[in-house]
Amino acid sequence: MLGRELKNRYRIVATLRTGGFGQTYIAEDTQRPGQPKCVVKHLMPATHNPQFMDLARRLFNTEAEILEKLGRHDQIPQLLAYFEDNHDFFLIQEFIEGYPLSEEMLPGQPMSEAKVIGILEDVLNVLTFVHSYGVIHRDIKPNNIMRRGQDGKLILIDFGAVKKISTQIVDPETGETPTIAIGTGGYIAPEQALGHPRLSSDIYSLGMTVIEALTGIPPRNLPEDSVTGDVLWQYQARVSQEVAVILDKMIARNLAQRYKSAAEVLDSLRYVVSATVPRSLNSDRVATEPITSINYSHNPNISQELQVKLTNLLTDEIGPIAAIIMKRNVSKAIASQDLIERLLAVVPPQNQERFRQKAYAAIATSAQTPLQTSSIKPTQTPPPTSAATNQINPDFIRRCEQELSGLIGPMGNYICQRAVKQHPQFSAAELVEFLVTQIPDPTKASEFRHKFRF
């Protein structure tokens, strides 16, 4: 193809890439001043069977018209021309001076969270536009995201839709054309790999792309949970809880749990980024309707009613992302008081006391589960355990409460009290060993045990 001039205009000067779907070249437009570069995509049908060619031709024209509309976006290459020549199909697109995002993502060198958020927001803006036309990109990955040299913006290239032209196979008996998976291993969504792509498939691929940026590890090298199949990536990354929950929802294998649209992801991301900005500076925030039910996590110590109330309170502070953060923390919390302390970590500092007061008021007005018999806030000290119901000296129990609170915070009082009530048969030594298991930091756990040597 080198040196060939298509339509007496586009002279092929270099090969960009060759793949199973066709070839991509750099050409010069000889009919424009300065003969600027352009990209030529040569799509070769799987067969020249007349029935297939009729289908391929209709598909090609339809997809080209879509690409022409998408090219109106500043961060998508403009379609300059498309035509058929000798039973092959050609697309002529704008040439982007720059380099692929993969050149910024070096193995073993994770990007900062701030930079990854910038990448995510930039691509989501483009993807929102693409999805507004009902178009699925089908092949989002670092090599298909270009960093434009003139302004540093990210450009989404190489839409997989046109590749369908080379993968359609007509069944001569039924006339049906089964869908063949298009995408790249590691980045491709599970349902897309089975030949059933949808808009949220692009969200999965983008999620895996930014996870690679955060970890410095290619997706195929990340381990999976042996039971759920979920990608295990967080222990390899330095990332905030709020961003982590967004990424987890982007790459959820279960479609019901994954974001449905790029706009939805973008909305969550913007709320997280602005979560520390005082409400007075966010007067344009759209009011959120109160939540009456949520897909709550099972926790025998925290009722569904309380989860809904706390989700509404948290939504008032940080927006729709609250439901995700709630679900993530409910399963980890040992009691409602512990859940509140966890949620405070994502509430703007100036609003934390207000949130704490409203949250404890919600506990008081919610149905209590058997393990929530205490309404004591973690900032208060529970009454001493009666020696009539436990042989451990009450002074020893109070000392345990003080030492545990000194290591893990006010929740130490509640944890100790609960342990005594639930395990009245414990000896002093057994109580200490049980409390040691409640301290997540190994160093602090060892320090606690050392204070109670028998």
UniProtKB/TrEMBL annotation:
InterPro entries: DUF8082, Kinase-like_dom_sf, Prot_kinase_dom. Residues 371-391 are annotated as: Disordered. This is non-specific serine/threonine protein kinase. It comes from the Bacteria. It is an enzyme of class 2 (transferase). One of its GO terms (molecular function) is protein serine/threonine kinase activity. SMART domains: S_TKc (SM00220). Keywords: ATP-binding, Kinase, Nucleotide-binding, Serine/threonine-protein kinase, Transferase. Residues 10-272 form the Protein kinase domain. Its EC number is 2.7.11.1. It catalyses: L-seryl-[protein] + ATP = O-phospho-L-seryl-[protein] + ADP + H(+); L-threonyl-[protein] + ATP = O-phospho-L-threonyl-[protein] + ADP + H(+).
